[in-house]
Predict the 3D structure of the following.
Amino acid sequence: MPELPEMDNYRIQLSKHILDLPITRIAIHREKSVNLEPEAFTNALLGRQVIFIERRGKHLLFHLDNGRRLLLHLMLGGLLYLGTLEDRPNRSTQVEISFEGGMVLYFIGLRLGYLHLHTAKEAEELLSDLGPELLDRKMNEEKFKAIFSKRRGSLKTALVNQEIVAGIGNCYADEIAYAAGLRPSAKLQNMSEDDLSALYQAVRDVLIHATEAGGYMELPLTKDDKLTGGFNDLCQVYDREGEKCYRCGDEIVKTEIAGKKVFYSPGCQHDR
């Protein structure tokens, strides 16, 4: 499932291509992917412009010029592609939005995900349960420690809980734990001040690095996109079961915590 770095990469790149361009065509191939009747959804968007793109957690919010919001959650298997009708990807698309000038934004794999049209107030209410953004300018080490020092349970479970902090999923929870030298199973209530400091720095290092590297998406956003997916080969532990740890040489182990798969290096990650 796309996480904070993947969605921020999409936000940054799409902002360079589609802002302030009138929407000229809507194609809906799966009605369940939108929240209105296809005709109503289409009529509400034709002629409108996206003036700003915001990421909140794992969501993208497309701010329209009439004050409304398109709320996107790709969920498991969701992808975006931006191109012309001629270079349309050989994938099933659930929604297509065409812009003046010929560019089409293809929404792929929205079997569980969705693209919903809301008022600004509705969108705000729908996202109100999300926790704080860890890369927000208002976030600092003191606030971070206050969030996690009050929690109990495993590190992995806390990191992927969107009501505690927004944007982290299975991949980056494991990568952050590795960077901090902590096992995903480490108990928050047993962590020292130094552990929490290391965790805060790991969060920033991993999420910023992964975003700059383009995240782990399998499909480029455009035909000329050389960035998206650049983090695929940079994961230290995630999806590397049985391979050697780059840091200590131990084999990467795969296990489960609360039904979620977990990857870690037993030689250099420790419980607290």
